[in-house]
Amino acid sequence: MMSLCHNKINISCVKSSWSNDIRASLYSLMVLIILTTVVGNLLVIISISHFKQLHTLNNWLIQSMATVDFLLGCLVMPYSMVRSIEHHWSFGEVFCKIHTSTDIMLSSASIFHLSFISIDRYYAVCDPLRYKTKINILVISLMIFISWSIPALFAFGMIFLELNFKGAEEMYYKHSHCIGSCSVFFSKTSGVLAFMTSFYIPGSIMLCIYCRIYFIAKGQARSIHDAKQKVQIGLEERNGISRSRGRKAAKTLGIVMGVFLTCWCPFFVCMVMDPFLDYTIPPTLNDALIWFGYLNSTFNPMIYAFFYPWFRRALKIILVGKIFQKDSSRSKLFSE
């Protein structure tokens, strides 16, 4: 028998018809994703905040991104979990707008941070001699401000001013509006704008920078190989270190691009195409793709933190409780 969210049949959404076993399995999976996201990003925040050796400009960006992903896990994902599994929203219309706006804001802010981190890594690898003059405290502060402010203005402005379905009101009330639902709806114009702002522009920046770093690192490796017989041993060792760093940066950004595209590309492609397909994409598929996108925030601390030895050392100190010892903040995590 069909279960409704509201007793007025003609305006009520239909509740989930999944069995208790399926719902229990989905709750277990999503709770695991949420806990991994929250704990992983919290460890990054604690590490960078506590250990003085990690107080660098580049790590400010990583800490800011970890804060975004932590808040996404705490404030957004639990409510999204209930909505996705129960197919019902019982927290009110106003909180629905707040939740949707916060969801769009934090997801977009996480992607913005990834883009700015790639820019920072570009100058660190490709122009190291002028890195400190180009990437200073003012530039990093501006990057962080843009990463938070633009997604916030875009998300809350669009949802609370109801610009997301402006010009497509008839389609909205026909396809998405019912009592007990809290799904985001985009018209053709707002869908394209959201796609460009939150995905295409920052994603294109990341892709271009990755390609640039890859070809520069490859060119440096070729030049070093050709010059091996003409340089002194000490210089060759330094070039070897430079080549190794270039390769490591290229590899890390390659992993970042792969995870980013795998997680977010399916959702944004479906989101921008749905209005042009007369909203025929099933809501269940949209929910699944949203959670696939959330996984990017789950994987971010693994990519940007735990891939580096000094973060693993910081993690060990935290987990064994040595962080509470006197002067633990001055622990040496890597050689200067």
Automatic annotation (TrEMBL):
Bilayer topology term: Multi-pass membrane protein
Chief location of this protein within or outside the cell: membrane
SMART domains tied to this protein: 7TM_GPCR_Srsx
Record GO cellular component, one term: plasma membrane
Keyword Nucleus: no
UniProt cross-references to InterPro entries, sorted A to Z: GPCR_Rhodpsn, GPCR_Rhodpsn_7TM, TAAR, TAAR1, TAAR_fam
GO molecular function: trace-amine receptor activity
Coiled coil: none
GO biological process: adenylate cyclase-activating G protein-coupled receptor signaling pathway; adenylate cyclase-inhibiting G protein-coupled receptor signaling pathway; G protein-coupled receptor signaling pathway; phospholipase C-activating G protein-coupled receptor signaling pathway
UniProt keyword annotations, A-Z: Cell membrane, Disulfide bond, Endoplasmic reticulum, G-protein coupled receptor, Glycoprotein, Membrane, Receptor, Transducer, Transmembrane, Transmembrane helix
Listed Gene3D superfamilies: Rhodopsin 7-helix transmembrane proteins
Transmembrane domains' residue ranges: 26-48, 60-81, 104-123, 135-161, 193-215, 253-277, 289-311
Pfam families per the UniProt record, alphabetical: 7tm_1 (PF00001)
PROSITE patterns: G_PROTEIN_RECEP_F1_1, G_PROTEIN_RECEP_F1_2
UniProt similarity note: Belongs to the G-protein coupled receptor 1 family.
Protein name: Trace amine-associated receptor 1
Organism: Bos taurus
